[in-house]
Amino acid sequence: MVTPGPDELTPLVKAGTASIGRANRAASAVLSVVGELNEAQAMFLRSPSIRYQVEQRLASRYEAQIEPLESACGDLEAELATLEPQHRRIVELLKPKDSDRQIPDAYLRGIVKLSAASVLATAELAAFPDALERLGERLSSLEPATVRLAPAMRRVLVALQPAVAWGDRASAILKRD
Q: What is the pLDDT of residue 171?
């Protein structure tokens, strides 16, 4: 492995830490959207009468989540696309025997948090896109929202994949300290 110069590693870690923060905010926004969608669905299922009015409210609540989800999705895609090569380079630059001491704890904690948020979001979103599409097929008033929400959720799942794996090593390093 290459011995890092302090002038190369420090800016990578700083930039990576900033990207991690922004990615964590985007992952949190995705989870908020999922929470809103779950709440809207629960309201729909609890309403035994006036189904049409409740369906219209559900459609409105779904539509209100399109822009926040698409925005968070775009942020996640951008931040993780930026962070992935930075993180890979940081790992490449470190010598195995002293790598634990060269990465600041804030970076490591950020990676662990992002990885945990990615695991949680992935678990929450795994079945959501298909379920949304099926719901939109059955309730035509929901279809305009579901045809936009489902693909955005699939994009989030793809964007989160690299971050899911990053937490193990960072967590192990933090536990040794």
A: 83
